[in-house]
Amino acid sequence: MSAQTQDISVIGYSKDYATDLLRLLLLLQRDYFSENASEQIKELRAEKDIEGAYKTYIRYIASRQDDTWKVLLARASGNIIGFIIGSILVEPDLVNGIVGRIEDWYVEKEFRGSGIGIELYDELEDWFIEKECDQVVSDTWADNELSIKAHKQSGFFVSGISFSKKL
Ligand SMILES: CC(C)(COP(=O)(O)OP(=O)(O)OC[C@H]1O[C@@H](n2cnc3c(N)ncnc32)[C@H](O)[C@@H]1OP(=O)(O)O)[C@@H](O)C(=O)NCCC(=O)NCCS
After folding, report:
1. Which residues span the domain enclosing 75?
2. Per-residue pLDDT reduced to its tens digit, 32-65
3. How confident is the model at residue 5 (pLDDT cuts 50, 70, 90)?
4. Is the residue at 86 inside a domain?
5. Are 100 and 131 in contact (CB under 8 A)?
6. In a mutational test of the pocket of ligand 1, which residue from 149, 152, 154, 156 has the highest number of ligand atoms less than 8 Å from its CB?
7. CATH number, domain with residue 41
8. Which residues sit opposite 160 in a β-bridge?
């Protein structure tokens, strides 16, 4: 069955989905990243224990009591096939100082290109608006074409360039 013909819904995260979220975070940060980032970027961002780090990350998000983190999942025919994670940070010195941030965003390869990513983002943006955010920020590594396209499609502009150098 193609992604287009399946019943897709966006749902909120609960601890029952911890294993699904970990699987998708690893697909994003280990597989997609290692297949698509340059050797230079991979060298600088290689993690010692990526699975352990993401288990800790998931526990950290679930333990937050202050409603400053949001995890949304995309479900297709009962399977979790995508997610987006957002957080809110207050920057007191800024006029537009309530800042929403996309932390991670992923849709499994065979489901891409049918609007699921944008649907996840739109729901996250609704939550940012409900929380009175003034702006949304997000970043990715250079040359991540899919990410750049999806951000532009969601109304983002490129607002900075970061430099790295291995010592
Ligand atoms: C970014 C991502 C979550 C978007 O999810 P998605 O379900 O494919 O997104 P959509 O179908 O809503 O499409 C959004 C835009 O992405 C682009 N896009 C989607 N699939 C594409 C593909 N296979 N080839 C080229 N561009 C594609 C298109 O510009 C599309 O907009 P359009 O169809 O209106 O032109 C997904 O591509 C992904 O998981 N990428 C790998 C991980 C990643 O880069 N994450 C983001 C930052 S860390």
Report:
1. 3-153
2. 999 999 999 999 999 999 999 999 999 999 999 9
3. low
4. yes
5. yes
6. 149
7. 3.40.630.30
8. none
